[in-house]
Give the backbone structure.
Amino acid sequence: MQARFRTPAAPPLPPIGRVQSWIQRPPIPALRPFIQLLWASSRRAMPEVLILAERERMVPTACMHLVFRLSDQPIRIFKSIEDAEGDTFCRGAVGGIRSRYYVKDIAASAFTVGASLRPGACEALLGVPADEVSDRHVALEDLWGNAARSLWERLQETGDLERRLDVLEIFLAKRLPRVYAIHPAIAHMLSRFSTTRDIGKIVEETGYSHRHVIELFRRTVGLSPRIYTRLLRFQETLRHGFDKTRGRWIDVALEAGYADQAHFNREFRELTGVSPTEYLLNRGEDSHHVLIRGQFCSIRGSAKEA
């Protein structure tokens, strides 16, 4: 009899030492082929409160994003938990599509504006193929030059989250080329992935050679079709894994196409850096944030830091 994976109950968390405001919305119609979502957040530290973690794992989402940090604390990205140096981005960065998790800091106080990009948006909005920024972060100033700094300054001029989204939206709309479309073969593949993950069959349907389509897909999306569909399957499992009406993790995983529990557990750890049990116990603000506790915990506040 196959062993069942039982979803453990997450322990109650103490109040986290941050007060946060968060808004998100879809973009204007002209941007919707390129931008999935716009968001803005404002987080302020509370004095003398236990901080559960100062770093977190970021689970791969099957999309890339761009983000501006408007506070004094920069964005810090780490290759692993053991990485003590990391990369620092003072104003903004593009996060390329990732094939596995990465580690980032959790700023005590942060004001952030960002957007989630759809496949094909990288070359249209940023001017580079998606595979040139995959599995890493790149400073926006390296891609947009002075325009990135000017946008950062305009975002700084208002403290209203909705207004900040308006400013980012207007800037992105102005960067759109007059005529731009994803190659028909790639558009076909992306649409077919919702019904089948048979890459060989889908490539054959495009009428192009396998090698040509794979290279074109990697340039457009940032990853190979095999890795991209792997992330889609994982994301589907992650979404439904928290729906109590869908049953246990393993039931959802088998439905998504995993061979068995061992296959699911192995891929889960490879993509997130933790087991499904550890994930549930350390899940952060949403399903893509996993707190790294213990090593990076602290107590903030003037009395404690003195």
Observations:
- DSSP finds twelve helices and 13 strands in the chain.
- The radius of gyration is 20 Å.
- The first helix runs from residue 121 to 126.
